[in-house]
Design brief:
six-stranded parallel sheet, alpha/beta, elongated
Amino acid sequence: MRTLDSLGPLGSKTVIVRCDLNVPLATDANGVKTITDDGRIRASLTTIRELREAGARIVLISHLGRPKGEPDEQYSLRPVAARMTELLNEAEPVSDSGDAAEVGFVDETVGEAASAAVAALADGEIVLLENLRFNAGETSKDDAERRAFAQQLADFADAFVSDGFGVVHRKQASVYDLAQLLPSAAGRLVAAELEVLERLTEKAERPYAVVLGGSKVSDKLGVIAHLIERVDTLLIGGGMVFTFLAAQGHKVGASLLEEDQLDTVRGYLATAKERGVRIVLPTDIIVAEGFAADAAHEIVPADAIESSSFGASGLGLDIGPDSAAAFAAVIAESATVFWNGPMGVFEMTAFAGGTRTIARALTETDGFTVVGGGDSAAAVRVLGFADEDFGHISTGGGASLEFLEGKALPGLEVLV
């Protein structure tokens, strides 16, 4: 895969950088938007700082949320430009002049204003264009429409750097087509993510444990099928555990259950047994009266969920403390651990214990630990853990999972 070094000297050249700045936003009573997790912005800074130091003229592009191909103010990247300016200036200025960094912002992606802003850039300066998905060409399934939008972006620059790992599994204009229209290479973030994932799939030290959570088994089918041949232990938590329990013949009350996946799960259990892979399921579950932060709840055996005082209407919202401790013990003895998906509804304090225990175990083990992006990355930050407490926190949940499934990722293939 081509890396940043393959582009040669970039001084005074205009470089368009596809970042993943799809950060969560909250709006206060006055309508002011606040970024609630700036992890993806921070992750993008290594490449941006390097380009700035090299004297490149930097054009940043990204999406945010899921607007429907037209401008929608609630998905504007304007707050991202402001936060990135702050983060760039937390460290010493890196430009030769020593000037503080400022990320300019243009409220369109392509057009006269965007063209003027790019043309006005001096060496080391940065501008962020508005949300790519305000233009229908970005995500179009029509190759010609997508290519036309990519060409408009390509007209701004001399080179393209792909550094939005969270979107490399998408065949989109700014990810796939743009890389074909300009000299292109992977940025430092994408290169680092790929190195970690290759370590997980090809060079993992053993014992190797994978912790999977989240809502649905169906979201993790490919990952389980691919990894069951490569790992020593699979730890299953989150909402997906109830389909595993049901596949073993246990009743799960009103808990999340994918009945159409029961046979698939039985197949996984059989395959694991044949291959000598441990599948560890919770032995206790926190069952609640309803889906609410203040819902009455109690701990019951995982094989007797309907024995709670809520009967068949109770729903499991977290793994229990005994299960969390058992999972942590497996993590402690593992040389490699990959974790994707919370153990429960971590946004609610009463049901965050399992996820917190897993996160803490990952910070305490001597093994190489990877948090697989998405809700897992959000959870560790919400629960007060620092990024540097882990071996690696991925910026791309979906992209990480597809790579671990063995799928080809268009945004990486085009950089080979």
